[in-house]
Amino acid sequence: MASTSGRRSNRFYQTSHFQIDSDKFMMSEKKDRSPSRELLKVINQLLEAGSIAAVVTVMTAHERVGSKLIVEESGRRWGTILNDELDLVVTTRAQKFLEAREDTRTISLREIAPLLSPSEEILLLFERLEPARHLVICGAGHVGAALAKLGSLLGYQTTLIDDRSEFLRPDRFPLQNIQLVVADNWSDSVRTAVGNGKGVALAVVTRGHNQDEECMHAIKDLEPDYVGLIGSKRRTNIVIDNLRLAGVAEEKLKSIRAPIGLDIGAVTPEEVALAIIAEIVAEHYGRAGGSLSAWRR
Q1: What is the pLDDT along the chain (297 residues), one digit of tens a residue?
Q2: Do 272 and 261 meet the contact criterion of CB atoms below 8 Å apart?
């Protein structure tokens, strides 16, 4: 069994932007606490399941300030904004909000449903609810260690896996909140760390071809949000070809970022780590990772 060290989690469920403080949440609907209690339970269940949803809150209105509607990606919903007809329209807008991968947005109800809105101005706050982002790194060499430190700095729950305990000494990561996993078996350790894959970015940066293969084969039946593999085109093609022979679907193979990272001319381990984390962030937000000033040229 793999051994672990490092501190994990805190008293709130957290996502990249949405943080649930149960005491504050319970006060959001002062007139009727029962709906708040039920919606808090729903939010906890969604996070535990690794689901993605939008939480829509009434920000301004004569009545129902603090009312919430929770909308899952599929369109399943809980709570209410005003009535069933408006809830259906807001649900459609919430799904578009999730597709855009935005964190938050404030929208007027009149903008969403001009013919159905009350005469008063009602502002709705859309917030993205998702599992806390988790960075799983296979390989604790120079690049893996630099990537773990950077991921932790950016707020990722970070797990660093290696089969060499001397590379996972806590004194190598004195200021970072990183889970260190000494792997007796790469496959078991990787599968445990990735879990259901929701919110997970997997970076395979091990020391050799054999370790790369073990890690990649471990997730052939799993669905991390991001998978990247370090190495030359030749080395990564060998791993991907072997995955193809093992029956991995072509669509899944095409989603693997190999070689891993954005092309920023990285040379040092720290620069390579920066290129990798930049690609992970870009993938999370559905961006290409190009230059913001490209339009000038």
Answers
A1: 455 554 333 323 344 445 444 444 443 444 444 567 888 889 888 888 878 999 999 998 777 788 899 999 889 999 998 888 889 999 999 999 999 888 899 999 888 888 776 767 889 999 999 888 999 999 999 999 999 999 999 999 999 999 999 999 999 998 778 999 999 999 999 999 999 898 999 999 999 989 999 999 999 999 999 999 999 999 999 999 999 999 999 999 999 999 999 999 999 999 999 999 999 999 998 888 989 998 887
A2: yes
CA–CA separation, 156 and 178 (whole Å): 9
Token pair 């799983």 in the structure block, residue: 136
List phi, psi (to 5°) of 10: -155, -165
Report pTM: 0.77
The total domain count for the chain is 2
Tell whether 145 and 242 lie within a shared domain: yes
Long-range contacts, stretch 169-174, CB < 8 angstroms, 24+ apart: 170/5, 170/6, 172/145, 173/6, 173/145, 173/148, 173/149
Report d(CA 132, CA 51) in Å as an integer: 11
Tokens at 268, concatenated? 């040092």
Has residue 111 been placed in a domain?
yes
Tell me: do 97 and 162 sit in the same domain. Answer: no
Judge whether 277 and 151 are in contact, CB under 8 Å: yes
Residue 54 tokens read as 């939008």
**Residues whose CB is less than 8 angstroms from the CB of residue 214 and which lie 6 or more positions away in sequence, other chains included:** 186, 187, 190
> Is residue 271 in some structural domain?
yes
| C-alpha–C-alpha distance, residues 227 and 260, integer Å | 9
| Domain identity same for 155 and 262 | yes
Strands 200-204 and 226-229: parallel
Determine, yes or no, domain membership for 11: no
Cβ atoms 226, 135 nearer than 8 A: no
